[in-house]
Design a protein that fits this description.
The complex is a heterodimer of chains A (250) and B (269).
Chain A: E1 7-19, H1 22-25, H2 27-35, E2 48-60, E3 65-69, H3 76-83, E4 91-97, E5 100-103, H4 116-126, H5 131-145, H6 160-171, E6 178-182, H7 190-206, E7 209-213, H8 217-223, E8 226-231, E9 234-240, H9 241-249
Parallel strand pairs in A: 3-7, 3-8, 5-6, 6-7
Antiparallel strand pairs in A: 1-2, 1-4, 8-9
Helix pairs in contact in A: 4-5, 4-6, 5-6
Chain B: H1 8-21, H2 23-38, H3 46-66, H4 71-96, H5 98-101, H6 103-106, H7 114-131, H8 134-142, H9 153-177, H10 181-195, H11 209-215, H12 218-230, H13 237-261, H14 265-268
The chains are: A alpha/beta (250), B mainly alpha (269).
Chain lengths: 250, 269
């Protein structure tokens, strides 16, 4: 592995979703429309296109803590997916250097019937953690959950607070170069919340780049040094926290 | 417009290579898939074995009697046939829903897409592993001994899996885009079960045209390279050649298609 500087460069990124209505999604219709000789000329085979992002350009360097703000439907989730390398832009280019992990749904991969221990393994695999890495960190993760003997019980027998503890402890054991989060993860009872916040701050401090989408002014103020304000799939404002936040929150 | 100027093949290779590197993901998840289905049952995944065993016993009795074939010959035949057809058919039909079913993962975690295809194949291979246990029992029951040809089933199985992988890859891509392809495939597989010698034996076909038609059925060759050795026979060279040609041609198409549409798949989900 080349240990280059982590960076993100988006140049003129647009993302367009094809909306396949029932009529265009099925093969049957496509075959039938060929058979009937295409009397109805549907332009671009009839797809409606929704533009999720439009001409987004910015670059992020190491040490940047980016906060994403914007109303619902402004393109935050889509942008997070582009940054995580899930959506490849339909036009423009997105260059993401560095290992990126997204903490969006921390319960993804968990099987309620499996025990706590098994779920730590499953969740870790889902995060892309290597086996050796997990072996090293397993005890530490198990201890952090504070679940003790419950780790040998099926996950479904846990209270929702305990379930969150397990998911959180495993998900935050990883130390990526680029961390993408949709809302701050706050979990559990007061005791665990304190531990969890400390742990999150640790990750935020060790990652080279943080991208955090949030609706909380307080949180953004505390964790970010730069804010991107998204509106209708475009970047409306991009600047230091102290300038953009007052403009957005008014 | 194409966002990638690197070409389709490198794109496809990069994904498949990454999936092979992160091999443990596919194995972890596929074991998990099997475990999940049988977690709270006492016999566990061996329900699969029991179900398959009952099926083989019943069909073996009915069709063996109908075809007037001695049980000593027919029972091992239908046993291997049903077990491997089950593997082929469910790998292909689950191949169709691979990307659609993994939507939650694909849209949230960056993971090679081929990992999901591998997971589906492994899952079915694990089930196959449970089912194949019936075969020695059947041999024992009819008083037949396995012969050295059994070992040839290993390369046969590998070439079968190699073929299944490209079929699954193509179908996973197509079915993510055209959802009713899945139904088409289900239907096709059902028909193929009767057109392929699974319940009936190839030699019961009349000489001439129907024998030659059989040679045009790819599933016949795919199943033969594994089945024949297990039954103590050498597969026809034609079957081996057909499987290899099939694999090379199929993978070429699969790689081009996958490379071309790989980055579109998340958008279709």
């Amino acid at each position: 592995m080349i240990t280059a500087m982590a960076s993100i460069t988006l140049a003129g990124v647009s993302v367009e979703f094809p909306v396949f209505n029932a009529a265009s999604r099925s093969l049957k219709n496509r075959v039938l429309s060929v058979a009937t000789g295409g009397a109805i000329d549907r332009r671009g085979d009839g797809h409606v296109i929704v533009r999720g992002l439009e001409d987004v350009s910015f670059s992020v360097n190491e040490g940047d803590r980016i906060g994403l703000v914007g109303h619902n439907g402004s393109g935050k989730t889509t942008l997070l997916r582009v940054l995580s390398g899930i959506y490849k832009p339909t036009s423009g280019s997105a260059l993401i250097r560095g290992e990126c992990v997204s903490l969006i749904n921390i319960s993804l991969g968990i099987d309620p019937e499996a025990t706590g221990r098994e779920n730590i393994k499953l969740r870790a695999a889902m995060m892309g953690m290597r086996r050796e890495q997990l072996r090293e960190q397993f005890d530490e993760i198990a201890e952090f959950t504070g679940l003790g003997d419950f780790l040998d019980m099926p996950f479904r027998t846990y209270s929702s607070g305990m379930q969150l503890r397990l998911a959180f402890s495993t998900s935050t054991a990883i130390r990526p170069e680029i961390l993408v989060m949709d809302e701050w993860l706050s979990t559990g009872d007061e005791d665990f919340k304190h531990k969890a916040d400390k742990r999150l701050r640790e990750i935020v401090d060790t990652t080279k780049i943080l991208v955090l989408a949030s609706h909380s002014r307080d949180l953004l103020q505390k964790n970010c040094n730069r804010i991107l304000w998204m509106e209708h799939g475009r970047v409306l404002m991009d600047g230091p926290t102290k300038e953009v936040l007052p403009a957005y929150f008014g | 417009m194409l966002p990638s100027r690197t070409g389709f093949l490198p794109e496809a290779f990069a994904d498949i290579n990454a999936a092979l590197q992160k091999h443990h993901l596919a194995t972890t998840f596929s074991w998990q898939d099997v475990a999940q289905r049988y977690r709270r049952s006492r016999v566990g995944a061996f329900w699969l074995t029991i179900n398959m065993g009952v099926m083989i016993g019943a069909l073996g009795f009915v069709f063996g009697t109908l075809f007037r074939t001695p049980m000593q010959e027919y029972l091992p035949y239908i046993c291997v046939s049903l077990i491997f057809w089950g593997f082929i058919a469910s790998a292909i039909s689950e191949g169709c829903t691979t990307f659609v079913g993994a939507e939650g993962i694909i849209l949230q975690v960056r993971m090679p897409l081929f990992t999901h295809v591998l997971r589906t194949l492994y899952r079915n291979a694990i089930i196959l592993g449970h089912n194949i246990l019936i075969y020695p029992l059947v041999l024992l029951a009819v008083g037949r001994m396995p012969t050295w040809q059994v070992f040839l089933a290993v390369p046969g199985f590998l070439v079968l899996s190699l073929n299944l992988l490209w079929i699954m890859l193509i179908l996973a891509v197509l079915c993510a885009r055209y959802r009713d392809m899945t139904q088409v495939m289900q239907n096709l597989l059902q028909v193929m079960m009767y057109l392929t010698p699974i319940m009936w034996m190839p030699r019961t076909l009349p000489e001439g045209i129907s024998q030659r038609l059989l040679d045009l059925n790819p599933f016949y060759h795919l199943i033969s390279v594994v089945r024949d050795p297990l039954l103590g026979e050498l597969p026809f060279a034609t079957s081996w050649i057909a499987c290899i040609v099939f694999a090379v041609a199929g993978w070429t198409v699969a790689l081009l298609l996958f490379g071309r549409y790989r980055h579109r798949i998340p958008y279709w989900l």
